C-alpha cells in the first residue's frame, strides 16, 4: 500500500479487501476484544484473563507477553494495539501491592479510550476448578443484572453498559431455544459485584414448556469497584450516534399504545348521503310490465278526483 496526501491507496487486491473490512459501515463488524497483562501480574490475574478469553472466543485476541503500561496514566499503548488489531474493547490485568489482582475493563471510540473501569478480584474460581460440562465455544450468553445500584448509581450504570458491550456477542436476527444455554449473572450488593456463569439445562416438565435448571460452570468472580475513567456526556452521546440510514422511518398516522397495540388513522373524503347505497328491499323495487302501467293510470285518476 502507498500513501498519498493522507489517503492510503492499496496496490493489491488483498490490501483492498483489508481496507474495505476496516472502513466504516452501516452495520459494523463484531466488536473484538484484546486481552493483555501488565508488567507485573499474579497467577490469579493470568488465569482470570485466560478464562475470560475462553468466554469471548473467537472474537478476542490474547497477548501472552507482558506490556509495561499504566492505562489510567497513559493509554497510548492501548490505542496503538487497538488500531493494529481493529479492537474496540480491551481487558487489562495487573497486580501490585497497592492494588492486588486488578482487572481493567474498557472500550474505545475511534481508536481512543472512551471509558474504563477498574475492578479488584477478591475471590475467584476458575473454569477448571468447577467440574461440570461447559458450553460450546462462541455461545451467545444471556446477561442478567441484579441490584439497585445498576439502576441508580452513575458508576454502576456505566459499568452495566460496559459489561453488556463486552459480553453480549454478535447481533443475530433469531435464536433457537436450545441455543439459550449460557447465562452470565451480575449482582451488585453491599459495594461488591458478583459475577457467576451458568449453563441452563432443559428438563422434562410434563408439558410443552420445559423446566429450566441452572448449573454453575465457572468462572466466578467477587469484584470490588476501584478507579473509573468515564467519558463526558457529549462524547458518550457522540459514540452512541447512529447513521440516519439505520434509523427507522416514521410512518404517518400510525401510533402504538402502552401495550404495543398498533393503531392506524384513515382520512376519508366527505360523503354525499344522497348517493349512499342502502340495503335493497323487494317493496322498494320498481315494477315492470302492464301491471305497473295500470297501477300508474289508477293513481293519476285518483289524483285528478282529489283536485276537483
UniProtKB/TrEMBL annotation:
Report the residue ranges that make up the Brix domain in this protein: 31-234
Q: What main location does UniProt list? A: nucleus
Please give the biological process terms from Gene Ontology that the record holds: maturation of LSU-rRNA from tricistronic rRNA transcript (SSU-rRNA, 5.8S rRNA, LSU-rRNA); ribosomal large subunit assembly
GO molecular function terms attached to this record: rRNA binding
Keyword Cell inner membrane part of the UniProt annotation: no
Which SMART domains did the record assign? Brix
Q: Per the record, GO CC terms?
A: nucleolus
Entries under InterPro entries matching the protein: Brix, Rpf2
Question: Region (Disordered) spans which residues?
Answer: 279-308
Q: Which PROSITE patterns match?
A: BRIX
Compositional bias (Basic residues): 279-289
Query: Where, per UniProt, does this protein localize?
Result: Nucleus, Nucleolus
Keyword tRNA processing appears in the UniProt entry: no
**Keyword line:** Nucleus
Q: Which family does it belong to?
A: Belongs to the RPF2 family.
Concerning PANTHER family, the annotation shows: BRIX DOMAIN CONTAINING PROTEIN, RIBOSOME PRODUCTION FACTOR 2 HOMOLOG
* Protein name as annotated: Ribosome production factor 2 homolog
Amino acid at each position: 500500500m502507498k500513501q498519498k496526501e493522507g489517503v492510503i491507496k492499496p496496490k493489491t487486491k488483498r490490501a483492498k479487501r483489508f481496507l474495505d473490512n476496516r472502513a466504516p459501515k452501516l452495520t459494523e463488524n463484531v466488536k473484538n476484544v484484546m486481552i493483555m497483562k501488565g508488567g507485573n501480574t499474579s497467577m490469579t490475574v493470568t488465569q482470570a484473563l485466560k478464562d475470560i478469553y475462553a468466554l469471548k472466543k473467537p472474537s478476542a485476541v490474547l497477548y501472552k507477553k507482558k506490556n509495561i503500561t499504566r492505562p489510567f496514566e497513559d493509554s497510548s499503548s492501548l490505542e496503538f494495539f487497538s488500531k493494529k488489531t481493529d479492537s474496540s474493547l480491551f481487558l487489562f490485568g495487573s497486580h501490585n501491592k497497592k492494588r492486588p489482582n486488578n482487572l481493567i475493563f474498557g472500550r474505545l471510540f475511534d481508536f481512543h479510550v472512551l471509558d474504563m473501569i477498574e475492578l479488584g478480584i477478591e475471590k475467584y474460581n476458575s473454569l477448571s476448578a468447577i467440574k461440570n460440562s461447559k458450553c460450546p465455544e462462541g455461545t451467545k450468553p444471556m446477561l442478567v443484572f441484579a441490584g439497585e445500584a445498576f439502576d441508580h448509581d452513575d458508576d454502576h450504570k456505566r459499568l452495566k453498559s460496559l459489561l453488556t458491550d463486552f459480553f453480549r456477542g454478535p447481533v443475530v436476527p433469531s435464536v433457537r431455544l436450545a441455543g439459550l444455554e449460557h447465562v452470565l449473572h451480575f449482582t451488585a450488593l453491599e459495594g461488591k459485584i458478583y459475577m457467576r456463569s451458568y449453563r441452563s439445562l432443559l428438563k422434562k416438565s410434563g408439558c410443552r414448556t420445559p423446566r429450566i435448571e441452572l448449573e454453575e460452570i465457572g468462572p466466578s468472580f467477587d469484584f470490588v469497584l476501584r478507579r473509573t475513567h468515564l467519558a463526558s456526556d457529549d462524547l458518550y452521546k457522540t459514540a452512541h450516534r447512529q447513521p440516519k440510514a439505520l434509523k427507522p422511518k416514521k410512518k404517518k398516522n400510525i401510533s402504538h399504545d402502552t401495550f404495543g397495540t398498533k393503531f392506524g388513522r384513515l382520512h376519508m373524503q366527505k360523503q354525499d348521503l344522497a348517493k349512499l347505497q342502502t340495503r335493497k328491499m323487494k317493496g322498494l323495487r320498481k315494477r315492470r310490465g302492464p301491471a305497473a302501467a295500470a297501477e300508474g293510470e289508477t293513481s293519476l285518476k285518483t289524483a285528478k278526483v282529489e283536485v276537483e
